[in-house]
Amino acid sequence: MGVANLYVAYNFSTDDWVNFKLFGTTGMMLVFVVVQSFMLSKHIQDEE
After folding, report:
1. Are 34 and 42 in contact (CB under 8 A)?
2. What angle do CA 23, 1, 34 make, to 5 degrees?
3. Less Cβ crowding at N or C end of the chain, within 10 Å?
4. Taking a C-beta distance cutoff of 8 angstroms, is the pair 20, 8 a contact?
């Protein structure tokens, strides 16, 4: 995400960068959380 942030910051306008920081990073974080949840759910063991 840091590389994407630097790319947008140096190659786009300030308004585009702010929109990316607000909506783009939020969306990427949401996708990351969902993917990690599915990956980690395979390793959760139920206690009996």
Report:
1. no
2. 70
3. C
4. yes
Asked if residue 35 has pLDDT above 90, the reply is yes
Segments forming the whole domain that contains residue 12: 2-41
Q: Work out how many domains the chain is built from and give that number.
A: 1
pLDDT at 20 over 80: yes
Residue 46 in any domain: the answer is: no
Does residue 17 contact residue 8 with C-beta atoms inside 8 Å? Answer: yes
The size of the chain, in residues, is 48
CA distance 33 to 14: 28
pLDDT at 46 over 90: no
* Residue 48 lies inside a defined structural domain of this protein: no
